[in-house]
């Protein structure tokens, strides 16, 4: 268990996941939280990361920093996604080990699992077949990070764990029109269509892919829970165990936003992985379960979008 006064470093604290982890830590009474903005600490600079760890000596690390994006961003900037994610995670994990960090938690993504993995996807299906091509570069970087944690545990006896979240959404999300993930992209698209009075909204693909979504504050709760209650080389899936089609999702978002027009589908655009549902039995066996249902979470996310208009510009 982390002592309430322990020094905790949250890497990526301005992002959706990192900011949620900071909120959860503070909610649970942890007040010795160390953060750095990108301007203060470029995690892709090995010398800067090593100097930071040597000076601060954090006892616990939540590695939530990452270069992230949706299908367009991932498929159009393959080299950037692989390089930046691999370099920053290796720098942080290695520096944590060099400076005697008690425990580190690495956050990956469900895209690490094979495109055709048996559903729901168990942690053990990692590296059993080919990845989804549209986000292969990002997935390979994340796989490298979780494997480095495992190898440090095996070689040096560290206590580094990894957590693989499903699709996330919530406060402080990225609503960029082309570089965001599906749910925030839909929130922005339907909101703008409502404001403009557009009679139709066109969505990508045919709406048949199945997806699972987890509210980011629920993920943050699991992050702290695992830091206090789990040790092991195998990753832990983070999700709800429930799925919806993209078509069903668009209907929920349209209803929450208040858009009354027609929804069209551009089948010339890619669907991505046909189905991505995580097996969350491992987290459940440890005693954890999500709290926020999808429609309630989307309402909270939309409120956040409305209250923070500058997020739509990112």
Q: Can you put this structure into words, describing what you see?
A:
This protein is α/β, with parallel strands linked by helices. It is built from 10 helices and 13 strands. The chain has helices at 16-27, 46-56, 71-76, 78-98, 136-156, 182-196, 216-229, 246-257, 281-286, 294-307, and strands spanning 8-11, 33-34, 60-63, 103-107, 160-165, 167-169, 200-204, 210-211, 213-215, 236-238, 244-245, 262-266, 275-276. Helix 1 (16-27) crosses helix 7 (216-229) and helix 4 packs parallel to helix 5 (136-156).
Total count of helical runs of at least 4 residues? 10
Structural class: alpha/beta
Largest beta-sheet characterization: 6 strands, parallel
Cα-atom radius of gyration:
19 Å
Mean pLDDT: 93
Topology as H/E string? Answer: EHEHEHHEHEEHEEEHEEHEEHH
Ends distance:
37 Å
Q: How large is the share of residues in beta strands?
A: 5-15%
- Unreliable spans are none
Count of extended strands: 13
C-alpha geometry: globular
Proportion of residues in helical segments: 40-55%
Strand order of the largest sheet: 2-1-3-4-5-10
